[in-house]
Amino acid sequence: MNPLSWQKRLRPLLTPVSLLYRRILAARRAKWENEGSPAFRPVCQCVSVGNIAWGGTGKTPVVDWLLCWRLSTRPLR
């Protein structure tokens, strides 16, 4: 089937969901702007690789390279 026909069929079902999602995000953003974001302090050093993307963005090779680099400069205890 044509992808455009699927979009036309699903639009009436997904529009209310998208409006609800938009309201939830707006409320969350307003709360964050008013109250700020609580800082999270891990007990050990950590590195965050990636964002909110799934698959194909190259996170695994970067983590592999970071681990190899870290182990070559200073072994883990």
Task: Report on the architecture of this protein.
The chain is an all-alpha fold. Helices cover 62% and strands 0% of the residues. The protein is built from 2 helices and no strands. It starts with a helix and ends with a helix. The model has no long low-confidence stretch (mean pLDDT 85).
| Overall number of strands | 0
Low confidence ranges: none
Largest sheet: none
What oligomeric assembly is this protein in? single chain
What global shape is seen? flat
What gap, in angstroms, lies between the N and C termini? 57 Å
Overall SS class: mainly alpha
Order of helices and strands: HH
Contiguous helical run count = 2
Strand content: under 5%
Supply Rg: 21 Å
Helix content: 55-70%
Q: If you average the pLDDT, what whole number results? A: 85
Offer a quick outline of the entry.
With 77 residues, this protein is mainly alpha-helical. It has two helices and no strands.
Attribute tags:
single chain, 77 residues, mainly alpha, 2 helices, 0% strand
Any chance you could write out the topology, listing elements then pairs?
Blueprint lengths: L2 H33 L23 H15 L4
